[in-house]
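Subject line: Sequence and fold of a protein, written as structure tokens
Area: Proteins and the way their chains fold up in space.
Start of record: The labelled sequence and token lines come straight after this line.
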Amino acid sequence: MCPVKMAALRAVAVVLLGLGLGCAATAVPLVIWHGMGDSCCNPQSMGYIKKIVENKIPGIYVLSLKIGSNLIQDMENSFFMNVNDQVTEVCSQLAQDPHLKGGYNAMGFSQGGQFLRAVAQRCPSPPMLNLISVGGQHQGVYGFPRCPGESSHICDWIRKTLDLGAYTQAVQEHLVQAEYWHNPLKEEDYRKSSIFLADINQERGINETYKKNLMALKKFVMVKFLNDTMVDPPISEWFGFYKSGQAKETTPLKETSLYTEDRLGLQEMDKAGKLVFLGVQGDHLQFSEEWFYTTILPFLQ
């Protein structure tokens, strides 16, 4: 065969190989956000999740969010950095990450669930495709019955501070948990003064951009821990909450005004099959590898 034909065949082979590689399925990147008192890279929590996802989905890019310059700052910021500033910081991180240009899935653990929902509502570029909230408190909390690990002394202080003045400006701007503190006995104070949760839950008016951006999700998965002793009330993990004016009876999402008035697009998402409610036996953030592989992994593949 003459050299010209050989060169032409080699060129065609290179083109075909390139096309084949281009058609190969590429794993959708995953962004994860840890919960209160945790950090991005704890080998027993987020580091572990990152590892098992990477083992099960070859080639996937997993970004575990770190807020601050080191792990200690990251942990401290989960208590004391204004949530709105954290969300702005994360949006900047995501926009500058070339791996995420084509879109990504997001998985938030505990308070990281509602924080990533804020990212979905406020920062549509790069696009979030699926949001998985693992124990996130989307209607907030009205109590901290128990705290994680070695953070109990901090939580004792948090309880006292919230009791004294959860909705004061100073507390709102400097205590993360106050920003999703939802007192059913003081609904007006909550709606007026909550600088984070009341905003993303459309309590002071309708932000059509928030609604449009959230509705762009393919799936919004909410995991509730059926034996949760940390979140009060646990139904907040499924977007429900206490009935207004008392703290005993709860209301499921579909009976809340947020849903019936469709202020956030949740009703329309529900009718389109975009909302997924999962329950798992266990206390807060306690689940087995098998459950994670069989129940959560399919949303990432």
In short: The first helix runs from residue 3 to 23. The radius of gyration is 22 Å. Strands lie at 30-33, 62-64, 104-109, 128-134, 219-225, 241-242, 250-251, 275-280. The mean pLDDT is 90.
